[in-house]
Amino acid sequence: MNIFNLTLGKIGAFLASRLAKESSGYKPYTPSDQDTLRKNLQPGDILLVEGNQFVSGAIKYLTQSTWSHAAFYVGDNLPKPKDGSERPTLIEVNVGTGCTAVKLSKYEKFNTRICRPVGLSKKDKKTTIDFMISKIGLQYDLKNIFDLLRYFIPTPPVPVAWRRRMLAFGSGEPSKAICSSLIAQAFQEVKYPILPEVTNAPGRTSAKSGYSKREILHIRYHALFTPRDFDLSPYFDIFKPTIEEGFDYKTLNWSGKISKRDILKLDDDTDDIGP
To answer: How far apart are CA 14 and CA 148, in angstroms?
Structure first.
């Protein structure tokens, strides 16, 4: 049995390494300005990333979203490296490497978005940060190779309504690493909602007053969350540093020419239409 598990683990590690490989052709439309991003990020923020790994395409397709990865910003709560290099300020989970602390500059060439919890108390914010820091080094069991194999089908032929269920199916350890499970757990520690299931209080469906129609929030299983959920959540603010820095469209210097990328896209669209 041990040999069997060891073999499955090795196969799982191999599959995970393949999923983590970068795909060709990724070009961000609005790469992050690191100085502006660093100045505006706050501990407790979630940084959504449009990834360029093989697995990113599957996540984006199955969730019908631009965002394939989420990282948790902890600010200066982690020690600065002794060699004087950049301090790690993000905590993230990846299949194969588990939970690690990484530098913000890792995503300087990626499309990103900041999601910020609204009204989170200092105490609860500290709880979420401490929770994430305590999980650094956490590894995920990769023996569930069937859980990994689903991500090798970037565009599975399934109806739109079933695509998200493909992520939830089985909810094995690899999927917990690929999705946003750990970040969801951190917020559930302080009962901060992400996308809870909502039901009406029993016996009060015909009442008209707001009190009588009180809704009950049900915590969803943390393994079923994806990066997209933080973007869609009504409880997280979408923070755009460029706008917050005082964006003025009148100061932009336009060339008056269409970009090469748009010309290529126009040619592709014309080819699709045909004669």
So the answer is: 10
